[in-house]
Amino acid sequence: MICRWIVAPVLLLTAVPTVMAQSQDLGHKILGGIGLDAGTQPDAGLYGGDRFLYYRADELRDRNGELIPVKGLDIKAVSNVAGMSRTFKLDGAWYFNASVAAPITRLSLNADEPRASVDRFGFGDLFIEPARLGYRHPHFDVVTSYGIYAPTGQAERAGVGQRQWSHQLSAGGTVFFDEHRGWRLSALASYDLYQKKIRIDIRRGDTVQIQGGFGGPLFRLIDAGVAGYALWQVKNDSGADLPVVLREARDHVVGFGPEIGIVIPAIRARLAVRQEWDVATTSRPKGQILVAGLSFVAWRPN
Fold first, then answer.
1. Of 34, 72, 97, 162, which alpha carbon lies 20 to 30 A from 113's?
2. Domain range for 47
3. Is the pTM of this model over 0.70?
């Protein structure tokens, strides 16, 4: 039964589309997917890019935050995400954005006692954000959006890891502390609504998450800061097939870490690297995530 405690939260990593630089929202269900520019509104144009994520955990925490003794626990997830985003300028300082992204993911889970072994590779869930509305001001940005995760992953996921549709409502913004929009404090809050899993009577409880960060330029083409995240499950998991050990177990996590970004003017791109660690968790693994992404401006209107 402890093995199901391990698999349940970790298989969420098979749906890990994430956000690109320039705040083009390509999905952020996985914590740590966005950082310093979480609530920033980009200029009009067409954006694209590629992002790599590496997650690892060797601890599992119960509903009270206490360590569950699982000998030899090793959880790893690697994902590569590609996506595109289009931003249109409306009247005045208003903007409209739309995005799409798809990941390829590999998940492995091993434990010696109780014995467990999982190794899966394939396409993850497609993320589509058909509507994002933003307002851009010299000293602050405001954004709000709706996105959907479609269960397009190829690998069959047994038991509590079965696929589902899910919806994401987000709102946030960024405050800039200088006229060059360099030093900034950014945050994006999201509410995730999960539908019943396919071919099994289990529904994950809704969650609220906040991601963002504070930072600014160190040198002409380099900026850095601290990124962080927090998640609260606000509704219980439900369904006739839900394991007893997971009933009324709501997960919660807080984490943070450094982020550094490098602008590459020659190709109109930005390389960002971020490393974050969980510092408080309940009902889920406690781990860390490394995110590295290259995003670029494919086209901008004259």
1. 162
2. 2-299
3. yes
The secondary element (H helix, E strand) that includes residue 6 is helix 2-10
Task: Check residue 26 and give its pLDDT.
Answer: 59
CATH classification at residue 295: 2.40.160.40
pLDDT value, residue 29: 81
As a whole number of angstroms, the distance between CA 141 and CA 137 comes to 6
Q: What is the DSSP string of 88-156?
A: EE-STTEEEEEEEEEEEEEEEEEETBTTEEEEEEEE--EEEEEEEEEEEETTEEEEEEEEEEE----S-
Average pLDDT value for the chain: 88
User: Chain centroid to CA 197: how far?
Assistant: 20
Q: Tell me if the bond preceding 138 is cis, omega within 30° of 0.
A: no
Q: How do residues 12-62 score in pLDDT, each as one tens digit?
A: 333 333 333 354 565 788 899 899 999 999 999 999 989 999 999 999 999
Whether 236 has a pLDDT exceeding 70, the answer reads yes
**How many structural domains compose the chain?**
1
Mean pLDDT for 132-145 is 97
d(CA 135, CA 123): 34
**182: number of Cβ within 10 Å:** 13
Q: What is the DSSP letter of 18?
A: -
